[in-house]
Write a structure and sequence with these properties.
globular; four-stranded mixed beta sheet; single chain; BUG; Tripartite tricarboxylate transporter substrate-binding protein; alpha/beta; D-Maltodextrin-Binding Protein, domain 2; Bug_dom1; 186 residues; three-stranded parallel beta sheet
């Protein structure tokens, strides 16, 4: 891991500490993908802690550096794809990755800091629960972001619907319900 220039790596008691070290915003870069791919195959690592140097955890894609790599057609989608690969590397790492948010998380950095909450207003084991788990898994795979299935059963779906209706309007809380519960409680 001595070849990394924007990422610090330390190993202590089976814990790999990765520190994004590209001040001032610790933008995502290809080194994170490379490091996590390597760590996936390292027996001496059992868990990864990802953090940022300085006052910012991560501000997402490198917008300042993007100008130097976008020179023609296809360069912007390729840059965006490399940024998404960072999320896939976190999600696909064979070792658990814990994000230790030490400061501001902006842009794509928010996605690593805050999971999507999928509220299911019905009891576990039913058709709605099973469908929500399937959709949640596919959402996580597609977005490269954690999805938490939150059971809020009761009152014919009303408790879960109320929880979502009164949550912060931040697009991270979603309701997974049936038409019946939406029409009764709308």
């Amino acid at each position: 891991m001595n070849d990394l220039t924007q990422l610090n790596y330390e190993l202590n008691n089976f814990v790999a500490a990765l520190t994004l070290n590209a001040p001032p915003v610790n933008a995502l870069n290809d080194e994170l993908t490379l490091a996590l791919d390597r760590i996936s195959e390292m027996d001496e690592v059992r868990v990864v802690v990802l953090t940022g140097a300085g006052k910012v955890f991560c501000a997402g894609a490198d917008l300042k550096g993007r100008a130097s790599v976008i020179k023609g057609p296809g360069d912007l989608p390729a840059h965006s794809r490399r940024t998404r690969e960072c999320f896939h590397a976190v999600r696909e790492c064979a070792k658990p990755v814990i994000c230790a948010i030490n400061g501001a998380a902006l842009g794509s950095g928010v996605a690593m800091a805050k999971p999507i909450r999928l509220v299911v207003p019905f009891p576990a084991g039913g058709a709605t629960d099973l469908m929500a788990r399937t959709v949640g898994q596919k959402l996580a795979e597609r977005l490269g972001q954690a999805v938490i299935i939150d059971k809020q059963a009761g009152a014919g779906g009303g408790i879960g619907a109320e929880a979502v209706a009164t949550s912060a309007p931040d697009v991270y809380t979603l309701l997974f319900a049936t038409m019946g519960s939406l029409t009764v409680h709308s």
